[in-house]
Design a protein that fits this description.
single chain, alpha+beta, Son of sevenless (SoS) protein, Chain S, domain 1, four-stranded antiparallel sheet, 9 strands
């Protein structure tokens, strides 16, 4: 398989469609054609002709048209419509009973996952606050709006917490419901539920500086405590990013840091990692026109858009040049020995734990924003882009370790190590890291080392061949899809392939058809992105196993245990 540079993901997704944008700067990568059909549109010919709404009735509805007591007969499948009509249809068909049918559950989920495609969050909030008509159905509609908001907050969790429109919406909605409570006492239960939601939302907005709050920021629990990088301050600062600090012109340290990191903190972390006195180092930002900016100790490294101020280089104070390359100092031998001393299972566990921390923070809507926005907002795709970047860096790490090893016998040992690590990642259901390692070993710069590969033992060659089979792109990656489908959750999919599938659905179907939202397309996209939720399910292990192991039934009396032993097998 070819290498996937992170900055070429978008062009890679759209390569087979001449109308798509290509923003990647890397060389084009030849990838297999995915066998995804061009989905036909469902036109509204033959439907009752409102210009702004179309729907198709189920077969059961047609066959039982005269029946009024059948739930199925009144069910419609949304095909297309204006945003307002889709929302009204959703509210009209929404039921408040606990045993709500799966069809409407799916329709609501589809809408909440994909609404950013055809309407803004501000427009959605305004539409939900509207409709204060004085009619008999007013109470039921208000209860349905509250139910939809409850599902929305539950689904999006912290994903909405920085949106100013949502903050204002929650306050306004709460005030409206309190006003309506006198006229509609039946809203009392819903008011209590909204109070819980409102308090939950306030904890994420108004009370952000409280020392008692538990931070919900991405990856907070792994905030590089070993390197002394402590998160602090505002919500933007508690977000984490992968920071590249170049130590030579063509090699860098990849570090996970909070967005509010300052130059002194980076200096301390790099100095510890490189075993160089911190006082000898300075941090320089090289801007794209070619300028060099010396960062002062308290200068911020990232801008408000979470972009670095420039390409970061670690330099010596006395020389003003980047540190010597690995090939010019003794660390070359040390790094190989250090890698060979590590247990392969432990390395795979560490890689998987790192990836899980990021993957578990990805929200399904991030894939929607990433697909529909060629210039995706960092606020909406932080975790997704971070894991894509991590996948690319693991691939480069494998190549770097192998190609910096000057000794043939140690190079053979390294490749054996990586083959075993890849197998362990697959066993731990981390297919993202698994693909990255296999691609790193398959890249031309490594695969051409014929003398090295000839020395690989036969059993390792056989294992590597079996692992390569899973990455075989033929038949639309059938081998990978079949293998991944059999794995139980939690598991990490190969994200570039999932994004490519979603991109084909997007580019093969119009979002608007005759000025109506093509909701059938959005249903297909929502169905695809729901894979993230399914893979994240039960992250900490099977619930039944946890329920058993969390409450161990024990007998701590040795005499009683001995009596039980004799009861099972009495003395002769």
């Amino acid at each position: 398989l070819a290498s996937f540079p992170f900055n070429s993901f978008r062009s890679f997704f759209s390569r087979e469609h001449t109308s798509a944008d290509s923003t990647g700067r890397a060389e084009p990568v030849t990838m297999p054609t995915f066998d995804v059909p061009y989905f036909r549109y469902i036109d509204d010919e033959g439907t009752e002709g409102e210009e702004e709404w179309s729907s198709s009735r189920s077969l059961s509805s047609i066959e039982e048209d005269s029946s009024t007591d059948s739930v199925v007969s009144d069910r419609y499948v949304v095909v297309s419509g204006t945003p307002e009509k889709i929302l009204e249809h959703l509210l009209n068909d929404l039921t408040l009973e606990d045993d709500q049918g799966t069809t409407q559950d799916t329709l609501l989920d589809d809408f909440l996952l994909t609404y950013p495609v055809f309407m803004s969050t501000s427009d959605l909030c305004q539409a939900l606050l509207g409709g204060k008509e004085d009619r008999k159905e007013a109470l039921e509609r208000k209860r349905k709006v509250l139910h939809l908001v409850s599902q929305w907050v539950s689904l999006c969790k912290d994903f909405l917490r920085e949106d100013e429109h949502v903050k204002l919406f929650m306050k306004t909605l709460y005030r409206y419901v309190l006003d309506d409570l006198y006229e509609h006492p039946g809203l009392e239960t819903d008011v209590r539920e909204l109070q819980k939601l409102y308090q939950l939302h306030r904890r994420h907005t108004v009370d952000e500086y409280s020392p008692q709050r538990k931070s919900k920021a991405l990856f907070h629990q792994l905030s590089l405590k070993e390197n002394g990088l402590q998160s602090r301050g505002t919500q933007r600062e508690t977000k984490e990013v992968l920071c590249h600090v170049y130590i030579t012109m063509d090699s860098y340290l990849s570090m996970r840091v909070h967005a509010g990191v300052v130059a002194q903190e980076l200096l301390q972390a790099v100095a510890e990692r490189m075993d160089v006195p911190q006082g000898e180092l300075v941090l320089v930002a090289v801007t794209y026109p070619g300028g060099r900016l010396l960062l002062q100790p308290q200068d911020r490294v990232f801008s408000d858009s979470l972009r670095p101020v420039g390409r970061l280089h670690m330099c010596r104070k006395d020389l003003g040049e980047v540190l010597y390359p690995f090939t010019d100092n003794s660390e070359l031998q040390q790094r190989t020995a250090r890698m060979l001393s590590l247990n392969t299972w432990d390395v795979a566990v560490a890689l998987t734990n790192f990836d899980w921390t990021i993957f578990d923070s990805i929200h399904e809507q991030e894939l929607v924003y990433f697909t529909f926005s060629r210039h995706a907002s960092s606020n909406h795709t932080v975790a997704l882009e971070l894991l894509l970047q991590r996948c690319n860096e693991v691939q480069l790490w494998v190549m770097t370790e192998v190609l910096l090893c000057p000794t043939l016998c140690k190079r053979v040992q390294l490749i054996k190590k990586f083959i075993k690590i890849a197998a362990h990642c697959k066993a731990q259901r981390n297919l993202n890291c698994f693909f990255a390692i296999i691609m790193g070993l398959n890249v031309a710069a490594v695969s051409r080392l014929s003398q090295t590969w000839e020395k690989i033992p036969g059993k390792f060659k056989k294992l590597f061949s079996e692992l390569e089979t899973v990455t075989d792109p033929s038949l639309n990656h059938k081998a990978y899809r079949d293998s991944f489908k059999k794995m139980k959750a939690p598991k990490i999919p190969f994200l570039p392939l999932l994004l490519k599938d979603i991109t084909f659905i997007h580019e093969g179907n119009k979002t608007f058809h005759d000025n109506l939202v093509n909701f059938e397309k959005l249903h297909m996209i929502a169905d695809a992105v729901r894979l993230i939720r399914q893979c994240q399910k039960d992250h900490m292990g099977h619930s039944e196993v946890r329920a058993y192991t969390d409450y161990l039934h024990i007998i701590d009396n040795q005499q009683t245990l001995f009596e039980l032993s004799h009861r099972l097998e009495p003395r002769n």
